[in-house]
Design goal:
This protein is α/β, with parallel strands linked by helices. It is built from eight helices and nine strands. It binds nicotinamide-adenine-dinucleotide (NAD).
Length: 261
């Protein structure tokens, strides 16, 4: 299975959770992976090392996706090391987990939390697109997937700025898709439902948030939480030529929550 042999892929938020899973999967499929994360440098290094230990190619680049200069430098580093950019999974994000970001209704959401959530989730994806797309155009195109959320399709109580920030991810995905379709760039979003095995969900479960579910189990039509692999399977497919006629789409991977929940 080497569908991505020779392709260069950026994965943001690659230290843990969905991003780490995607980076490992791209690496196993033969991609040269640029693992990106902000503060968790040990986690980012560990993901890149795990790819190399498995016989793949990867580097780690520290980059806060909300900072324009750092995003610009991260894409430049990708081009200087690997010479091209074929795919990107813009996945770094923060959400209410009761630890790093509080659960709060809109009227109780502080301006600081609103701005921080928007800066990482919405501005972060915008900045990645702003610098990745010109890099991809140098070699004739590419494919991008941005991580939105079921929370960007259906607003949930107590999620404060998170839902609006993820709705913005879907909007900027579609903006980029319509602007660059004729230049060989496809841009899609993946919308996970509650997905286990991530720091976000571990914190959320520990603080009694949405991930804890209730006595009836998770409020998901399929009756089970998502797993990291459920999301990464969709991401690798959307980035591949098998999804070559799909762009501007927000794909729910949520056990039916957005559509029939
Ligand atoms: P996670 O907390 O394990 O991973 C988030 C990653 O983003 C980490 O590697 C972290 O270091 C990185 N990150 C955070 N801020 C950053 C910044 N400013 N710059 C660079 N990197 C930064 O959680 P996860 O669930 O794997 O989250 C991945 C994405 O999935 C997020 O966008 C999240 O909103 C989204 N999501 C998760 C779920 C879920 O249930 N787990 C559901 C819907 C959407």
């Amino acid at each position: 299975m080497e569908d991505y042999k020779g392709k260069v892929v950026i994965v943001t938020g690659g230290a843990t959770g969905i991003g780490r899973g995607a980076a490992l999967a791209f690496g196993a499929e033969g991609a040269k992976v640029v693992v990106v994360t902000g503060r968790n440098t040990a986690g980012g290094e560990a993901t890149a090392q795990a790819i190399r230990d498995a016989g793949g190619e990867a580097i780690f680049v520290q980059c806060d996706v909300s900072d324009e200069e750092q995003v610009k430098a991260m894409v430049e580093k990708t081009l200087s090391v690997y010479g091209r950019l074929d795919c990107a999974f813009n996945n770094a994000g923060i959400g209410p987990d009761g630890v790093r970001v509080p659960f709060s209704a809109l009227t109780e959401t502080s301006v600081e939390v609103w701005d921080r959530t928007m800066a990482v989730n919405a501005r972060g994806v915008f900045l990645c697109l702003k610098y990745e797309i010109p890099a991809m155009l140098k070699t004739g195109g590419g494919a991008i997937v941005n991580t939105a959320s079921v929370g960007g399709l259906r607003m949930a109580p107590s999620f404060g700025a998170y839902g609006p920030s993820k709705a913005a991810v879907i909007a900027v995905t579609q903006t980029a898709a319509v602007e660059y379709a004729r230049q060989g760039i496809r841009v899609n979003a993946v919308c996970p439902g509650p997905t286990q095995g991530t720091e976000l969900m571990k914190n959320s479960a520990a603080t009694g948030g949405a991930a804890a579910g209730d006595d009836d189990g998770p409020p998901i039509p399929l009756g089970k939480f998502g797993q990291v692999e459920d999301i990464t399977n969709a991401v690798l497919w959307l980035c591949s030529d098998k999804a070559g006629h799909i762009t501007g789409h927000a794909l729910s991977v949520d056990g039916g929550m957005a559509d029939i929940g």
